[in-house]
């Protein structure tokens, strides 16, 4: 019994020592990590302080340089203000008393100072003749505005004495009467006297004064020959018209022959109610084919996405409002348009589990569109003729966060189909969400012609 107690005591003592030793080791490790962290932080702080000290020194140098520059600028401004400038012009201004001179002396001095060459000023008496005045005006018009002056001291400017054109002359003075009496005016030293018209002007206070009949002379009308080249209209070629004697259905019977030669190599052919020109060198394949009056419709079909068989809650791949997830690769949820059955187009095509079987051989135009509303960046589908891919449409839209992105993927092409060939649409990656509703996801075929591949 004592041996067991001693062993138990020894075991507990050894266990306590081990726990104490383990706690001491953990404490030492924690203190070591703390000391290293503090040392690293201290190094970072010291480096940052040194960097700030260097930046402060650079800023202080820049401030000192700016202060020196400001001092130099201030000294230069002060020196500039204290400088004295002397006037180098030896000529002195004329006293103000010269402004009081009479007009004739002013004109003499004006012409004497304005001439480039050393010429003697002209005598103002030569302006007494209207001929001399006109000659001098013509010579000096390009040099100055003032042309001459009369003996009375009136300045003559190079302005036109004609009446200025007014944009609206209803409120300006207008001449009354086609003929007026002119009285001799005051004698002048140049030209003939100006006539004076008594009561020759009046003002019109308002617009549209229809009560008063204006006696203003009609304005002159200037005309000139037209510079537009006039060409005679080309003569039209005579039309060939045939008289129709009787009509039966969609055919006509003419009094003359069915065709009339119009030009070498061409023939005017009657076609119903129209006459058209046809090249006689071309081979006509359907000549003599009777017109039925109706156009045979081309075999065509159109399928829309259909989700009427799905119910929200019962089908896990249906989210409502046409939002459908396709588990298989081939799209199978299609429904033909209403006009396919009414026009009898279902006899040319048959749909079974997403595969359309073509009943007539020929060249067909194929088109398709899938409206994807999925969160993936890449979506797309392929169009298969039997097991051969003939068309493909792929969309790649990158987005930072994962969210639904809606885009339509459309493709179309022309392909030859034989009788019994099958057409189908398959998703590139199964499980993509798309909107299978009318006008959003669809495909169809239109026959272009009967062509056989040899």
Automatic annotation (TrEMBL):
A single Gene Ontology biological process assigned to it is: immune response
Primary subcellular site in the record, as a coarse category: secreted
The UniProt keyword set, sorted, is: Cytokine, Disulfide bond, Glycoprotein, Membrane, Secreted, Transmembrane, Transmembrane helix
- Chain ranges of the THD domain: 299-448
Top-level taxonomic group: Eukaryota
Any one cellular component term from GO for this entry? Answer: membrane
Q: Which GO terms describe its molecular function?
A: cytokine activity; tumor necrosis factor receptor binding
Under Pfam families, the record lists:
TNF
Location in the cell: Secreted
- Could you list the residue ranges that cross the membrane? 20-46
Q: Which family does it belong to?
A: Belongs to the tumor necrosis factor family.
UniProt xrefs under PANTHER family = A PROLIFERATION-INDUCING LIGAND-LIKE PROTEIN-RELATED, PROTEIN EIGER
In its UniProt entry, what is this protein called? THD domain-containing protein
